[in-house]
Amino acid sequence: MADAAKTAQQPQPVGRGEKAGAEFGYVGVDSVLEQMRRKAMKQGFELNIMAVGQSGLGKSTLINTLFKSKVSRRSVKPDDEERIPKTIEIKSISHDIEEKGVRMKLTVIDTPGFGDQINNENCWQPIMKFINEQYEQYLQEEININRKKRIPDTRVHCCIYFIPPTGHCLRPIDIEFMRHLSKVVNIVPIIAKADTLTLEERDFFRQKIKEDLRANEIEVYPQKEFDEDAEDRVINDNIREKIPFAVVGSDQEYQVNGKRLLGRRTRWGTVEVENTAHCEFAYLRDLLIRTHMQNLKDITSSIHYEVYRVRRLNEDSTQTHDEEDGHPM
Question: What are phi and psi of 18, to 5 degrees?
Answer without folding.
Answer: -100, 155
